[in-house]
Amino acid sequence: MSESPAAASPYEVLGVSPEATSEELRRAYRKRLRLTHPDVGGRAADFQAVQVAWERIGNPESRADYDRRRYPDNDPGTVHAGSASSPGSPRASSAATGPRARMYGHPGGHARQRYLELLREWVGRGTVIEDPYAPQLVRSAPREIRHCLARALAQESTAHLVSLLGIGYTAWHDVLAGSHPDPIDHVVLGPAGLFAILSEDWGAPVELRRGELIAETLRPEDRPVHEFEDAARALHRALGVRFTALVVVLPDDALSEPLAVPGRGRRPTVVVIPRSRLVGLLREGLPGMDRGSFEKVFDLRSRLQDGIRFVTD
């Protein structure tokens, strides 16, 4: 079971309220075990999820620990426009000591703002929210709202990894994609090429089917790969730059192996990877791909720096 805000909580898996008594939890657990057991036609994944849910909230100690676990309200790796990671943060001080990548924009800022807007609408106008990241509030919110927070955390994690690549890399975050309504989470330029990156977390494993990603938490009409390609194409038209590849970064528990949608015509390849593979991809590039010259990277960086606009501009 994923720890993502977008994932089903143990209470949702067992089908009970967070205020359920210990006896109600026990009865729900036994019922869900019977319904999901593979011997009676249940799915093994659902059966395992029920057992993991019980491990997390089945006794008073583990339940209390889970209930007070808080989602962070400020990631220490956050990067602001024209700056490196916050110098006083624990993550920045404990990270690589050498020169860091040039970072511009505010990773996760747009998603966090959307999370707070939707949360206020859901709670009700005029209601004071003392802590918008309190665990009980987050877990009780609708999945759409929780997904906004999960996506913000995913973008911040990606930005932190990119920042450690070194001075040879430049990254822009929350980039306006020309006329497209959705921004591009990250644009990263380095010796291996120019990459557009989508950082996502749907709180569930994903599969690639007919060139599109699917997951239990995605609606049938959702087309994340298609929308990502459209946004990258709009930025390509606006700036006159060509991406080496489009990269979808997911939590490691969302997929076991990288997935790829081959490029079609002028469209670049779309690669779907677990987060632990991101640094290697940005350093080494795609198999068989020629690395760019220093002069080419320098010229392209100047063009991007002059042309990129941010969501907050």
From TrEMBL:
<dbReference type="InterPro" id="IPR011528">
    <property type="entry name" value="NERD"/>
</dbReference>
<feature type="domain" description="NERD">
    <location>
        <begin position="149"/>
        <end position="258"/>
    </location>
</feature>
<feature type="compositionally biased region" description="Basic and acidic residues">
    <location>
        <begin position="63"/>
        <end position="73"/>
    </location>
</feature>
<dbReference type="InterPro" id="IPR036869">
    <property type="entry name" value="J_dom_sf"/>
</dbReference>
<feature type="region of interest" description="Disordered">
    <location>
        <begin position="1"/>
        <end position="23"/>
    </location>
</feature>
<protein>
    <submittedName>
        <fullName>DnaJ domain-containing protein</fullName>
    </submittedName>
</protein>
<feature type="region of interest" description="Disordered">
    <location>
        <begin position="63"/>
        <end position="107"/>
    </location>
</feature>
<dbReference type="Pfam" id="PF00226">
    <property type="entry name" value="DnaJ"/>
</dbReference>
<feature type="domain" description="J">
    <location>
        <begin position="9"/>
        <end position="70"/>
    </location>
</feature>
<dbReference type="InterPro" id="IPR050817">
    <property type="entry name" value="DjlA_DnaK_co-chaperone"/>
</dbReference>
<dbReference type="InterPro" id="IPR001623">
    <property type="entry name" value="DnaJ_domain"/>
</dbReference>
<feature type="compositionally biased region" description="Low complexity">
    <location>
        <begin position="81"/>
        <end position="102"/>
    </location>
</feature>
